[in-house]
Fold this sequence. Notes:
Shape: elongated
Strand content: under 5%
Order of helices and strands: HHHHHHHHHHH
Number of strands: 0
Structural class: mainly alpha
Distance between the termini: 134 Å
Mean pLDDT: 80
Largest sheet: none
Number of helices: 11
Helix content: over 70%
Amino acid sequence: MNKIIFLAFCYLLTFSLFSCQSSNSFRVPGETGLISKNICSEYMNIADSYFELKKYDKAITYYKLAMNDKNLKLSVYYKLGRTYALSKDYVNASKIYSDLLKLDPQNKDLQISLAYVKAMSGEVSESLGMYERLCQSFPNDAVVFENYINILLFLEKKEEAYAQYKIFAQKFPDNANLKVLEEKTKPAQELTTEISDNENNQLPNY
């Protein structure tokens, strides 16, 4: 009798086990986290696709969803910042780049990106100081120098802009934007020449 009861118990147990496996509610240990991770990866892929199509509002929505995966969070956060910048939401872009720089303060790309969005958001004076430091840290980066000159011109610092243009022309003689910068700094060149002529005219004759 006991043997019959035991066999019946085993049968019920096996039946229950297979019933659970066939149920949609059953989850293998760790499966929920894996599913969540896969979903977040898909969200990131969707966001990347929207980014390539320049549908930045859609990309932002899906990047935010993808950030639920802690393993993807930093890379997605950077992509989110870049998307904000390209959609001209410079305030949010600035916040993200600032946050990321706290984690990686020597990152050149983050420094340049933050200086750019600061300028575009109207924080031009702060951006100027950042570009000045960037020129010292990365003296062979033409884009950094070019942006620095443009900000100097925007702030009406014409003589400084012309001085930086002369350095730029010496360092990057084949740069495609050299002629454009020359035209932009022309008034400063003329002003510098005029001041120099006036000083020479005022020199005493011996």
